[in-house]
Amino acid sequence: MLEVCVEEGAGIAAAVQGGGDRMELCAGLSVGGLTPSASLIRLAAAAPIPTLMLARPRDGDFRYDTQEAALIAQDITDAAEAGLAGVVIGASNDAGGLDVSLLQQWVAHARQEGEKRGRTLSLTLHRAFDLCADPLAAMEQAITLGFDRILTSGCQPRAIDGVETLGKLVRQADGRIIILAGGGVDAASVPALLAAGVREIHASCRAPLEAAGDAERRFGFQNGPRLRTNAEKVAQLRSLLPV
After folding, report:
1. For the chain, domain boundaries
2. CATH 3.20.20.380 for domain 2-239
3. What is the pTM of this model?
4. pLDDT, tens digit, 9 for 90 and up, residues 123-175
5. Which of 17, 19, 86, 221 could be stapled to 216 by a disulfide with Cβ–Cβ 3.0 to 4.6 Å?
6. 54, 79 in Cβ contact below 8 A?
């Protein structure tokens, strides 16, 4: 399974054209992803492959106040109403572990929103997981909460550097939850991830378009080269995974 992380319409098209199995839809990939716009959600909902929507109202940490928590609950509702396959959520407590109480509320809300529409929303715990000091214990919490999968880089910035932890997670999970490996994943890192037992891969498959022009850089509209999901990179990565 290859999940392609996309943030614009051209990225959706590239993920489909390249043979991606599923999309994670977001905005602001340069800061790890943010909640996408309503118009982009509608576009992704019309795509021929399933889409999971990231619900993250701002950059920075994953400790949310009451207002932010309500925004994420509304994002879950919006994803359900749009007909998306699921949502990607996560929250940390003050100690850096999972905010189990808040996650429990969101999971219950997602189940309710799905039931209203006669289906089940797929639930991914995002990389707030990677900030947990004890990932194996955090995984057990995620299983108890009812998550379907965990998007993780093995508690390292890049999945290839966390491959040992990813292997431990897969073995302890023993089929009870899916470990979705993401974080700097490219064709070179896939063999090691597969060897660790990972069966779902998450990648943006992006390539640079062009450097920022003088005016765009001067006004702060663009910092460096624009990156966009590339269909050839998607196809290359998909070709490395078992059918």
Report:
1. 2-239
2. yes
3. 0.95
4. 999 999 999 999 999 999 999 999 999 999 999 999 999 999 999 999 999 99
5. 221
6. no
